[in-house]
Inverse folding.
């Protein structure tokens, strides 16, 4: 008898957790589900769990790695400026009519690493433009949504290049199940407790109303001014449709909006960054007046510079997030090449667009009001890790008092 | 070394044939492709072939047998009146913008045989209503479209219930490849020759302009009056966007529109009919004034009566089609439980809706003009086989002269 690489009971629990905790799907609510074909075993369970939760109609939209590659390897040049607007507009309409949204990730994050970078970037831009109406409803939190992960074989091989495929899948599955808290007997109870802990953290930070955070660690001496009226977020969130959901399974971070013009000093990435199929390693940057004025990388420096040149906002911060070094994802010691996991392994900052939700009464603020308060705007939002076991963080109050927030990578209180 | 059940070279040729002969996809044209996940090996090849042919953007929409069953087995009752209008309206928009359409079939035709028939029928109705805007563009032949088949394992087990799965798949694959003419070295040339043969048949029939066809055979003595201004169709067809395509791979029939009120006599089905997961066998019907006034079946009689009671047009004919007994699909001796194949094994009639294209200048005719000429209207279109090796057919001219059309199941000339 052989043991399956992916424990079916844990997979059942992950489906149930994604539907009940991640989405908190409401009786009669429709669901639009995007997933790769490699994740079909989870997709099928999610569909069943969603209907058991009373779903109206579940519509899966399946992508496929080989179909994607068939395009890059065979399509005429003009194809790379095309995107299926009719499909994305349809999704926006479904969200407008009240459907929830789940995304399952599971493909090789470096799938396109060997393809023509110009084609990858043009196709990405065309897709982003076409997807915007649907994405806005998600980014504005108009509906309950969530992202969960399945240990697809190509992703597993990427994370564990030295292991046989079956073993790699088994290891990635274990890591995903642990990070998603579905290796516990009662994942719903575990998520309730976890959300309470994150809510206490963000309540304390909101009470402090720091003017800035000062990060120190190997290669990092960075003061991140926080936006006026910033609000810390983390864990379960209330969507505008009145449903409390967990947008990321897993999630270990509390996060808020930096001030776009008040970031000073140097930062060194503590982990490599996987961006659109390229790996950028050894990032070191200098901020002046909120803007990155110098940037180096030991690997992928050209990709980093291209990223920073996307638009004016790409050189400024849109997010700062706190994650202790003892986070279960950090303790796994793995690089997942996927932001859903890697950003939950360490304190991080994000280049680019900020979240309206990370302002007091953010859902009522217009674009100009967000900018006035120091919120950054950009077409990109790219998280990268700056935290580790030696990271210290002080909160600086408006009066200039220093309050310990992190010591040696852990919460100071 | 084991031989694969499905010859990859034949599969490559089927993809190429579906794109070049079936669709005749134009450079820069988009393609909307629906297929089951079981057909992914063909889907991936079709995507590559479409891009090699210069496709703008190929958008596959994948369904999945287990996802479908998860709905029937878990969804609340109200779910079965729901359909994804936003997705179907999007498809209609894509067709309106010029996209071509390919459907790949490959799932078990009896998938829903064990599910609640009321749920199956309600879900089918909701889906048909939502899909109508997209279907109209296909039925009106506004765009080039095609249907092709992949030997999915569950379908293969249905066709060959006594064989091990691998052998069943191998047998079904061979049958599909032969019927689709991709077991030949040059399928495109074979389709050109085949289309020429079908065009000669339909040209002769159009020249005769018969008033009626008289079918005789075991249990059948049926006079099928033809609609005024009827036109025979078959093989390659010109879509309204100017592209000549082959809507069915395979296709062996020439077909036209009967007169809804001029069918008299009795007909006995020569093969079982698979309808929405049920098998109806031993059908015997009597027509009076075009209308079925008596109907029996040795198996599935209740389903047959439900079908005939769908609407007034469900008891009248919308199509009559001629297929010789020597057709390769007939010679295979198989029952595929799938109309794409089974209707190409024998002469058949169809209950329900007629095709506008089977009238002279049909694309210019309104619904009323079609009805005036004797064209039938209904929500259904269900083909069933009445031909076999003993079938004789006479054409009856407007003057009453009899012209031999079929003798002993074969063309008489
Ligand atoms: Zn973050
Ligand atoms: Zn982020
Ligand atoms: Zn037919
Ligand atoms: Zn038909």
């Amino acid at each position: 008898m052989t043991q399956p690489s992916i424990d079916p009971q844990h997979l059942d629990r992950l489906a149930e957790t994604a539907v009940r905790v991640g989405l908190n799907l409401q009786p009669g609510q429709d669901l639009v589900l995007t997933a790769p074909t490699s994740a079909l075993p989870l997709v099928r369970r999610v569909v069943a769990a969603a209907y058991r939760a009373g779903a109206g109609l579940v519509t899966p939209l399946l992508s496929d790695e080989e179909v994607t590659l068939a395009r890059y390897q065979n399509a005429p040049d003009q194809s790379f400026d095309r995107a299926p607007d009719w499909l994305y507009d349809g999704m926006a309409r479904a969200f407008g009519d009240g459907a929830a949204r789940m995304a399952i990730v599971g493909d090789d994050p470096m799938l396109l690493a060997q393809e023509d970078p110009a084609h990858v970037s043009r196709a990405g831009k065309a897709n982003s433009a076409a997807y915007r109406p649907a994405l806005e409803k998600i980014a504005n939190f108009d509906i309950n949504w969530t992202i969960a992960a399945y240990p697809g074989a190509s992703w597993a091989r990427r994370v564990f290049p030295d292991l046989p495929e079956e073993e790699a899948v088994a290891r990635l599955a274990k890591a995903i199940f642990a990070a998603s808290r579905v290796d516990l007997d009662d994942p719903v109870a575990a998520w309730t407790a976890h959300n309470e802990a994150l809510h206490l953290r963000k309540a304390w930070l909101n009470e402090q109303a720091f003017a800035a955070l000062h990060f120190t660690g190997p290669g990092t001496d960075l003061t991140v001014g926080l936006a006026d009226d910033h609000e810390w977020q983390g864990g379960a969130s209330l969507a505008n449709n009145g449903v409390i959901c967990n947008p990321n399974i897993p999630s270990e971070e509390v996060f808020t909006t930096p001030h776009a013009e008040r970031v000073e000093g140097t930062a060194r990435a503590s982990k490599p960054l996987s961006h659109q199929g390229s790996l950028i390693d050894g990032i070191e940057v200098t901020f002046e007046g909120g803007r990155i004025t110098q940037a180096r990388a030991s690997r992928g420096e050209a990709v980093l510079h291209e990223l920073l040149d996307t638009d004016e906002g790409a050189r400024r911060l849109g997010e700062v997030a706190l994650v202790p070094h003892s986070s279960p994802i950090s303790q796994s010691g793995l690089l997942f090449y996927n932001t859903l996991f890697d950003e939950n392994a360490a304190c991080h900052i994000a280049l680019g667009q900020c979240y309206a939700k990370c302002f007091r009464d953010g859902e009522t603020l217009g674009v100009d009001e967000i900018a006035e308060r120091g919120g950054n705007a950009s077409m990109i939002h790219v998280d990268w890790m700056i935290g580790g076991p030696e990271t210290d963080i002080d909160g600086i109050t408006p009066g200039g008092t220093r309050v310990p927030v992190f010591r040696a990578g852990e919460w100071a209180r």
User: Anything to note?
Assistant: Residues B 253, 255, 319, 321, 343, 348, 383 surround zinc ion (ligand 3) (CB under 6 Å). The two ends of chain A are 49 Å apart (CA to CA). Residues 106 and 152 of chain A are 5 Å apart (CA to CA).
